[in-house]
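Sync notes, pocket subgroup
Present: LS, DG
LS reminded everyone that the earlier model was apo-only. Rerun requested with NDP included. Inputs:
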Amino acid sequence: NLQVLLRRRPQGEPTPDDFEIREAPAPEPAEGEVLVRARFLSLDPYMRGRMSDAKSYAKPVEIGAVMEGQTAGEVVASRAPGFAPGDTVLGGFGWQRFSAVPAARLFKVDPDEAPLSASLGVLGMPGLTAWVGLEDIGQPKAGETVVVSAASGAVGQVVGQIAKIRGCRAVGVAGGKAKCDFVTGELGFDACVDHRGDLKAQLEAACPDGIDVYWENVGGAVQAAVFPRLNDFGRMVMCGMIAEYNDASPRPGPNLMACVRKRLRIQGFIVSDSGWQRYGRFRAEMLGWMRDGRMRWREDVVDGLRAAPQAFIGLLKGANFGKLVVRVD
Ligand code: NDP
């Protein structure tokens, strides 16, 4: 069995020496497992994370272990009901020719529906990523502008095309003219911005009505350029920040990659949007807590309207202690 192992953890950009290639005996499927011969192996950005032992949402690949990855291929032997030699499957495991995989982790696919490799891309994890992220977070509505970074890539291609299907203006961000031409010409995005050029000016021209949904695949300079152009009630789908995966030390400022790793939801709001419509319910509940002694409050009462300016100046510096109010004389 030809295998690619992780030899050591890369510092910054991975190098070939971080991997080891070896021949090993093919695995024997245990009860409930299926032996899969890989025809295609998917290579994906998340694998950079698995090579590192930094705390993340998934366990790292151990040193000396087969690199993690999904394959599509065919069943050569089966000890699980529902799978027979010759079946075409998605879900083989690792950077290796043969893998023994629990049947529950395999999807049988019909090889006549689409080319097998598509089950690792548009019909696979990246396509599913695009579809789920738009449905759950992006929620594009007809007429909105959707910007997608790494637009010519596995996830980005699908995001922009779904946005078009939903009636949006789709704007890609990609590196270089060939990729940008593909994104507009082949994929049918309305525009594509080359992140090697003047991002700010290009984004302004491509998004005259601002940006309603930003699909973040990249981070770095692209994120910085897109962020100030988001419209009111815009949504940012935090999918990945590949531009920063090889960083050896953290960049200054908050790192929004935590949104991906920890599935954070960061959402702003303005109380007046819909708060006062709920004032009655709020007031009743709050009065109850106050009466029951479950709510305490502290006020900082300043005497006289003349004291208001100084008190206000102090508020911005922490001179108040509790809710600042003026007792009007
Ligand atoms: P792609 O096929 O898009 O390949 C990566 C692309 O990223 C490159 O082609 C390049 O495109 C772009 N890129 C790389 N480095 C930089 C950089 N320094 N600055 C700007 N662009 C850069 O990969 P995928 O579609 O598989 O993945 C895209 C993103 O989605 C990744 O961040 C990945 O981690 C994330 N992801 C997240 C998932 C999730 O569940 N949250 C699932 C799957 C993927 P270009 O030359 O155009 O810049």
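DG: Residues 44-46, 126, 129, 150, 152-156, 174-175, 179, 195, 217-218, 220, 222, 239-243, 260 surround NDP (CB under 6 Å).
LS: Residues 125-138 form the longest helix (14 residues).
Action: DG to write up.
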